Amino acid sequence: MSGSDLTRRELMEAAVVTSGALVGGQLMPGAIPPAAAQGAGAAPAPLGVALRVNGTEHRLTLDPRTTLLDALREHLHLTGSKKGCGLGQCGACTVLMDGKRVKSCLSLAALVEGREITTIEGLAQGDELHPLQVAFIERDAFQCGYCTSGQIMAGVACIKEGHAGSAQEIRDWMSGNLCRCGAYDHIVAAIQDAARATGAVRGG
Ligand code: FES
Ligand code: FES
User: Fold this and answer.
1) Which of 55, 109, 136, 139 is most buried (CB neighbours < 10 A)?
2) Helix axes 148-160, 3-18, angle to 10 degrees
3) Quick one: DSSP state of residue 168?
4) Number of the ligand 1 atom closest to the C-alpha atom of 91
5) Last residue of a domain, one of 81, 106, 122
6) What is the pTM assigned to this prediction?
7) pLDDT tens digits for range 146-166
């Protein structure tokens, strides 16, 4: 393995855990800046919101129009979840809510009080990566890494839902998560590996 390969792999491993190493919080073309996403009118009165994220409760004071994605990224500094379209169309912002996948750009933070939110930062158990994070690294299932946290969170849900029985089934149930780099074959292979590793499907 060359030095440049090693460096790339190290960067990729960081991307799988936080999805922040490669893009540094920069938005991709077409992304909506946080300020613009809040609208141009006068701000309504701030609201106290208790968000439970990755097992920890956070008490925030938010503009009631704040999306869950912006609360995570701008207020809790959990920047693994990405803002691609801000319109529910790309899946880069996917997180788990009570174990089910949701697009956090479409959820208002004030409306998810009491729900258990899991982001890519909360997926590993201590130093032990989730099997799908391991599979993404082993399958080299990303290039720029911008979609990766959303793909992994959606993939975790896809496996748990029992929708990882075949490559075509995975493609169908992952169709809400776009990859501009076209890493789909590797993403599907990684999900199949993780599904086998977790016993969700049989076969080798
Ligand atoms: S940012 Fe694209 S679906 Fe949420
Ligand atoms: S790896 Fe670049 S968008 Fe998916």
Assistant:
1) 136
2) 60
3) H
4) 3
5) 122
6) 0.83
7) 999 999 999 999 999 999 999
